[in-house]
Design a protein that fits this description.
174 residues, alpha/beta, Leucine Aminopeptidase, subunit E, domain 1, seven-stranded mixed sheet, 7 strands
Length: 174
Amino acid sequence: MSVVAASVISMNELTGITYLKGDATSPHGKGRKLIAHVCNDAGGWGKGFVLAVSKRWPKPEQEYRRWHRDRASSGFALGAVQVVQVEQYVWVANMVGQHGIRTGSNGPPVRYDAIDTALAQLAAEARDLAVSVHMPRIGCGLAGGNWERVEPLITARLTTARIPVSVYDYEEAA
C-alpha cells in the first residue's frame, strides 16, 4: 500500500488550521511535531487511525495499554492525554475522547467535552515541547463525531494559542 505524499489543500483563514491530503503519521513540514489522535476509554486499540500509528511505531500502543491497565492509579480517564516520544523530534498524543467503542442508546462514542479537555492539555504539552500539531479529523471516524463540532474546539484550544495545526485527510495512491 503506498500513500500519496502530503499536499496542502487549504488553510482555513478563520480557524488557522491547515488541511492536507496525506497520512498524519508522516507529518508534513519541518521542525518538531506532535501527532494527536483520539482513543477510547475501554482499552481497545485495533481499528481506525491507531492501526497506522502502530504500524509505524509500536510504543504508543504499548504505552496506551499500560496506561489503561493501570487506570486505577495512572490518571487514565475521559479527557486525559498521554504523550509518547517516538522519534527524536516526533511525539504521539493518545487523547481519551470516546466512551466505549460502539454507538448505543447514548449515541456515538465521541465525547466532545472530553476532546475539549484533552485539547486544553495538548495545548500545554505542545507549548512545552515547542511542536506543531498534526492529526486526522479526530473524533470523526469510528468515534462517530461531527467535524463541525470538533473543529471549533481545535481552534479555541490550539490555533488561538498560536499552535500550528495540520489536519490530514488520508488518501491512498491508486
